[in-house]
Each structure stands twice: as C-alpha cells, then as structure tokens.
From TrEMBL:
SUPFAM superfamilies: P-loop containing nucleoside triphosphate hydrolases (SSF52540). Residues 26-252 form the ABC transporter domain. One of its GO terms (molecular function) is ATP binding. Keywords: ATP-binding, Nucleotide-binding, Transport. CDD domains: ABC_MJ0796_LolCDE_FtsE. The keyword RNA-binding does not apply. Pfam families: ABC_tran. This is ABC transporter ATP-binding protein. The keyword Repeat does not apply.
Length: 252
C-alpha cells in the first residue's frame, strides 16, 4: 500500500493494490443535485451518469448555468449529491464523513483554479510544498518533492521567485506543480486557461498533454472550444444533463 500513511487507516480502501486500475477514477450514477424547494427548486444536476477511466483527459463544456461547477464540486468532494452515487477511485464517497472527505480530497485530487490561488509573498517552492505539510512529511522531503514537481513543469530555476515575480503562465505551472506534488490520481482543473493569454494557454495545455502522456487522469472545465479540443474526450452539459460525450476530441 505505497503512499498510504498510518493516518489513512480511517479511509475505507476498496481493493487490494494491483486491482486499482480496474475501477474508474470517477463514477457518477444517477446523480442529482437539487437546490431550493417548490417554485424555487433548481435541478442543477438532473440525473448524471459519467465514468472516467484512469489516464483519460476529459474536457467538460456547456453553457453558463448548465451544471459544470456543480458537477466539479461533487467530483472534487467539495459538495455531496442530493441523490445518486459518486465513487472516486472506487471509494463510495456517500459513506464518508467530513473528515474522511477532506482526507480523500488531499490524497486523491490535485486542484487547479482559474486564478492560480497561490499564496502571495511565498516562494514558488514553498507554495508547491504546501499540500505535503498536512501529511506530516518532513521539511526536507517536502522541499525535495516540491523541487521535483517544479522540475516536472519546467520551472526549477524559478523556485525562489515569489508569485508576483512570475508571469501568469508560470504561476499556473507552479499551481499545477502544487496539484501534482501529492501524486494524486486525478488532476481537476476549473477554467485553467481562463485568465491566460493565448501563448500562456498553450504552455499550460502542452503541460497537460505531457502529463496525460505519462498516464495522468485530467478533468478540465472550459468555456473555450479550442481548449476543449486538446482533450481526448469532450463531455457537454445542458440543463443539468450530459447531452453529448465525444471520445474523438473536439466537440460533439
Ligand atoms: N448554491 C446554489 N443555490 C441555488 N442554486 C444554485 C446554487 N449553485 C448553483 N445553482 C444553480 O444551479 C445551476 C447550475 O449552476 P453551475 O454553477 O453548476 O453552472 P455552470 O455550468 O458552472 O455555469 P458557469 O459556466 O456560469 O460557471 C444554475 O442554474 C445555478 O443558478
Ligand atoms: Mg461554473
């Protein structure tokens, strides 16, 4: 059970090592998310089924209000469905308490946000090391792993720079290094190129391509069709439902 610390004993692990690749990274079954009641009821998700295998690179697209963020929040274990089941890497999340959900988030998912969410006045390497601090990893190992993650995004020579001393594209690459430093099973990106110019967007998408090539699972929300076209699969949402799912890349 490599990578699982003693504190993980409270997490119900579904399977023995070696069987992990057999279940999807993400499995949503008949997921509903309903806000409000009566006349004010909003069916933000209205019966979503979605299965994403390990190593897939998937874009989620759809008009404003179609349910993308609602679905991302559920996939990210930041919110729970009103009904239906969500399994993350084989674990039935509905059976977990708040503490276990926080653990699974930290252990399984690397988040990338539109606005990078780096800690200001904190060196790139220390930003990247941050998620490891919650895991009782020694200072020296935190530094080593953060440097390795920065190297993987091509920024080891900027390790001592502050966020304000980096370009937007570089800041997003630091944020991606931070998302990867825990070696999560899934990279979850919400409009990762939304705040970037064309050149920086390509830098980030090239990085996603190379992560995908090394077997990383990536789920990315985007408004931009040319960005979605970089994924190998595009899931289109409308009114809380998945209305198209194209495996060829590009838009269905
Ligand atoms: N906390 C909430 N309370 C009530 N309604 C909500 C809440 N959050 C979202 N909704 C509604 O659920 C629907 C889906 O919202 P969601 O944020 O998932 O859309 P989205 O596809 O992410 O849109 P955007 O592209 O604008 O970010 C919308 O009609 C929205 O108004
Ligand atoms: Mg949204």
């Amino acid at each position: 059970m490599s990578g699982i610390t003693s504190s993980a004993a409270t997490l119900p692990y579904p399977s023995a090592p070696g069987r992990a690749a057999q279940h999807p990274v993400i499995s949503l079954s008949a997921v509903h998310k309903i806000y409000g009641e009566g006349e004010a009821e909003v069916r933000a998700l209205d019966g979503v089924g979605l299965s994403i295998a390990r190593g897939e690179f998937v874009a989620i697209i759809g008009a404003s209000g179609s349910g993308k963020s609602t679905m991302m929040n559920i996939i990210g274990c930041l919110d729970a469905p009103t009904s239906g089941e969500y399994r993350l890497d084989g674990i039935a999340t509905g059976e977990l308490d708040e503490h276990q959900l926080a653990q699974i988030r930290n252990r399984k998912i690397g988040f990338v946000f539109q606005n990078f969410n780096l800690i200001p006045r904190t060196r790139a390497v220390d930003n990247v090391a941050m998620p490891l601090a919650y895991r009782g990893v020694s200072r020296r190992e935190r530094h080593e792993r953060a440097m390795a993650a920065l190297d993987a995004v091509g920024l080891s020579e900027r390790a001592s720079h502050l966020p304000s001393q980096l370009s937007g594209g570089q800041q997003q690459r630091v944020a991606i290094a931070r998302a990867l430093v825990t070696e999560p099973v899934l990279l979850l990106a919400d409009e990762p190129t939304g705040a970037l110019d064309t050149h920086a967007s390509h830098e980030v998408l090239d990085l996603f391509d190379s992560l995908h090539a090394t077997g990383r699972s990536i789920v990315m929300i985007t408004h931009e069709l040319d960005v979605a076209a970089r994924a190998e699969r595009t899931v289109r949402m409308q009114d809380g439902l998945i209305i198209a799912d194209s495996r060829t890349g590009g838009v269905a």
